[in-house]
Amino acid sequence: MSDPQQHPASFRDPAGFIFQYNGHYYRQVNQSYEKDFKLFHSSGLYQHLITARQLLPYEILQKNMTGSQHWYTTLLPQQLSFITYPYEWCFSQWKDAALLTLDLAAEGIKYGMVLKDATPFNVQFVEGRPMLIDSLSFEAYDETRPWKAYRQFVECFITPILLAKYQSPALLKLFQLYPDGLPLPMVAGMLPMRSWFNMNVLLHVRLPLWLSSSKPSAHQSKPTFSRQKMTHLIGNLRSFVNALALPAVTSTWNNYYEETILSDEYARDRMEVVQPWLKKTDVQTVADIGANTGYYALAAAAEGKFTLAVDADIACLDNLYKEIRRNKVANVVTIWADLTQSSPAIGWANEERASFTSRLKVDMILALAVIHHLCISKNISFAQLALLFSKACSWLVIEFVPKTDPKVQLLLSSREDIFSFYSEQYFIEAFAAFFSIEEKVKVKDTERIIFLMKKVGRD
Description:
Helix 3 runs antiparallel to helix 4, helix 6 packs across helix 7 (199-213) and helix 9 (264-280) packs parallel to helix 10 (295-302). The chain is α/β, with parallel strands linked by helices. The two termini are 24 Å apart. Strands 12-11-10-13-14-16-15 form a seven-stranded mixed beta sheet, sandwiched between helices. Strands 1-2-3-5-4 form a five-stranded antiparallel beta sheet, with no helix packed on it. A hairpin with a 6-residue loop joins strand 15 and strand 16. The longest helix has 20 residues, at 91-110. It folds into three domains: 5-77; 86-214 and 221-243; 264-455, Rossmann fold, CATH 3.40.50. It is globular and about 75 Å long. The chain is built from 16 helices and 16 strands.
């Protein structure tokens, strides 16, 4: 029996905090939040959000597990299979998270409460949809006061989405550098001139920036506020976000099977190899590294596996996420990550937000048609890959693509071949340090080989 350990990211809110105990995560509600917590339940807001599947459900435990003198009650929330951070989301995930936050704010007002926090870190994608995970985010609503989370919402949601629309979705990674929100002066300077013609950009980005730089008058009175103004503000923001969209883009990888050397037949041939292994190993969690269109990630999900679809191409992930949402696939989470420069540990003492590789713990990794890109394009060695995968999974399905393959030849056409180590022999030797080869199958009509590997020492 270990002692309860407070989560390193949960220390700023005096209303309570997250802690871990015996492999489960709990939330302590402090006495300072007692009144709002009671209102949250007695008003019917909690039940409404649970019914609407907008809030992560929890069980109330009348047990002081931490021994804290500030304790009021303890919550046991539905446990999450994987935590993602906003800088690992695609554009459509950002947009859905923003719309959820506005819907929560609007619903709260109907029940006499207001959303006091508007950070994307309070949202996770659960069962194919965004959900609020911070159950202490509401407080009693005073309609005479402006929405105190408005500026936070603009800097944490509006500005990243605007930069993605007007400049590049790649700029969503800026949130990793500014996790408290992108500064308005910086964003205003990065937005192109054509954004000036968007009235909402003027209203929510440039006007607040101008007002904050102007000197207040000594006799200036505070503007009055009302429920009607609050409702109008949230409605305006919702229409603004809902109208934002990316231009159609064809990336290097989002047409990988349609317009490249590889064919649909090749993808199906690989599936004939991979799918039986998903069944026979009886794994419960899978990470598809280089998921691309999601063909294999969705197949793993169809077998009942909780699946992470990981890719460095944000356009691919955006298409996949929209397919997951459209088809209501409940057990796939998309993650925008490049293994060569994945999310680092950040925040206070570098412990608030864990690195992607430290969070990547699954039963099986699928690494199909990805090794040659890492080794040839990024100069990653087989030994480095074997070590990384050994820390992340017990089973590994990995495809070796030889130098004679047209795809590898294409990669080598633009650079010197310094990869004397790149051979099947060296590949097997490097992975043998951590894995045993259970099966190997050559893909039809190619020289590619798919290996099923088991981590050495696994029971």
